[in-house]
């Protein structure tokens, strides 16, 4: 079972929990997650393709709680560029001093609701960290709206190389890949509504249905039809826990 809620403490973040057997693979969404699994704190980096839901150590055996950060907001809090965590799941102790992480894990164990503990951990850390790159939200918003990379670069006043470098640090990949990932998420949300594939392709901004099918295959490892069949009449999580 999967459930989620917006975080009132961490702007733009989602608190989520999954119990029971792992579902389908986790699909790319441009987000990063702070995880509490089996008494351990881990970080899920930004994905470029599908990852097995049970890939997180301990995630196949019990409940997993997570705090999903909006695209571009986690690197400042974690203190590491997003591209260093691309397609990775790592122990938080690999990023922060081990004694500090052990102390945080002890505090987390005291929470009846691990999601609330993750929120408070993130809020406390954010108060002592540099703010997220202000460019990130503008870039993500433009690409989510279907704007071209050139148009987004012009709006934020950066050249292509500068935009690419800043995007790697904030999102884990360049703006073109981020645009593909965000467009995929738009398309999958439309597909879950039961819309015909041709309409999904048009409304999500693909050149045609064939283009849509190629992108779904490249980013999820499945076909639009198989995805729609697997997720029909099923309440789907957003972001990093979206299943294929």
From TrEMBL:
InterPro entries: AraC_XylS_family_regulators, DUF6597, Homeodomain-like_sf, HTH_AraC. One of its GO terms (molecular function) is sequence-specific DNA binding. Keywords: DNA-binding, Transcription, Transcription regulation. It holds the Pfam family HTH_18. PROSITE patterns: HTH_ARAC_FAMILY_2 (PS01124). Residues 133-230 form the HTH araC/xylS-type domain. This is AraC family transcriptional regulator. It comes from Streptomyces roseus.
């Amino acid at each position: 079972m999967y459930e989620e809620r917006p975080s009132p403490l961490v702007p733009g973040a989602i608190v989520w929990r999954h119990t029971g057997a792992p579902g389908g693979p986790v699909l790319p969404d441009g987000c990063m997650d702070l995880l509490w699994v089996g008494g351990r704190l881990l970080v899920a980096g930004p994905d470029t393709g599908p990852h097995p839901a049970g890939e997180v150590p301990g995630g196949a055996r019990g409940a997993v709680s997570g705090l999903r950060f909006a695209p571009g907001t986690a690197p400042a809090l974690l203190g590491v560029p997003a591209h260093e965590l691309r397609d990775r799941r790592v122990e938080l102790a690999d990023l922060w001093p081990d004694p500090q992480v052990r102390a945080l894990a002890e505090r987390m164990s005291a929470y009846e609701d691990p999601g609330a503990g993750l929120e408070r951990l993130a809020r406390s850390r954010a108060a002592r960290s540099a703010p997220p790159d202000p460019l990130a939200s503008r870039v993500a918003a433009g690409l989510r709206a279907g704007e071209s990379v050139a148009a987004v670069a012009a709006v934020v006043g950066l050249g292509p190389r500068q935009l690419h470098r800043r995007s790697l640090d904030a999102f884990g990949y360049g703006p073109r890949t981020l645009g593909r990932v965000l467009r995929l998420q738009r398309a999958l949300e439309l597909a879950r509504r039961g819309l015909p594939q041709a309409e999904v392709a048009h409304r999500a901004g693909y050149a045609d249905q064939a283009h849509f099918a190629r992108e779904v295959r490249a980013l999820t490892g499945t076909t639009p039809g198989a995805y729609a069949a697997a997720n029909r009449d099923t309440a789907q999580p957003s972001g990093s826990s979206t299943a294929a």
